[in-house]
Amino acid sequence: MSAALIRSSHDTALAEKLAQTPEVIAIQQQIAQMEAQGVQSVRRRLLSTSVRLSPVMAPSLSRIAQDCAEKLGVTIPIELYAYSSPHFNAACVKPEEGRLFIMFSSSLLDSFDEEELRFVMGHELGHFVYQHHDIPVGYLLKGKTSIPPDLALRLTSWSRYAEISADRAGAFCTQNLHAVARALFKLASGVTSTAVRFNLDDFLSQVDDMQITDEQSGSSASAEDWFSTHPFSPLRVKALQLFHHSELMMKGGAAQMDLEMGVEGLMGLMEPSYLESRTESALAMRHLLFAGALLVADADGGISPNEIAVFEQFFGRYKYREDFNLQKLKQELPKRAAQVVKHVTQPRRIQLIRDLCLMAKADGGVTHAEIVVLKEISHRLEVPVLVVDTFINDSSGIDWVAE
Fold it and tell me: Which residues form the Peptidase M48 domain (predicted)?
């Protein structure tokens, strides 16, 4: 298994789109110009403010770095540094002069065992392997020039998925879910003493409580969550649990498509619902869902009261009207689907098909005519039509929320 194969598909898709935005291109050019003008080098600053850890000084850490580099296919020379700080932190610094730099806070090195450090090392190397430095989120979000809110949302959403990819790289190096979870528990809590005993199941239960709280309040993630560059630690552990139980880590594990959908559901706890968000992708999804729901419901020549009720659960009470021009919606469907394909990643397109299938099942069954329309929409969204059969035939009672 190579590092490229375990990267989050959301990370890849979002990064490709962000790399084409004028703001990202402009800041990349600005950084390149600063480097060309001979701004003080990163290595010079590290040598003056931190301690370089040679293999003699830190044999175990150096061995871990070498092992992780081999697993992830990193061939560039690596320099390790330690700096004094009471906070747990580590960072991978953009390569310079053919060297890659990884920094660790003194408290992290003092408090993490070898397996936990292996996860941290793999995580930081993952950022390099996946070229996350190419999208300088910090410069864009904290720079002197403000950026549009829509771009800020896309940047932070991508950053969270970039962390998921880096976590997978760390877990791939570690091959020990419990050690990985312990590391993230320490990072989140700061607790290392024996007064608290780590329990994986209890830690993961925080995610369930978050979902229950959101459902009871009838709200989605707060705006503060939307602009966070890192997923909550319990979400990261839950996402890594899905990863460990997938075909990427074990023979006969869950399909990668199911893994990515599961992770997207978790990340949805920190993102605005696509029914509420004002981003291009969310708008495209809403337009398609609106048309698709009505066309599927009308496939048999009429829309039932139950189908109207489900429609209004998504779009609001009294949003359904008898005078909807369904013929016009049918004509516009290809255009709406093309906008979704243009702006939305495949896992989120699959989520859209899932929501349409569940809406179709709301009145107790799905007819052949409705399945035909669902499969047409799936085809236009470039989603395998077998996905429709999977969702229609699933009787497990999927816990679904429009994200």
Answer: 59-133, 153-241
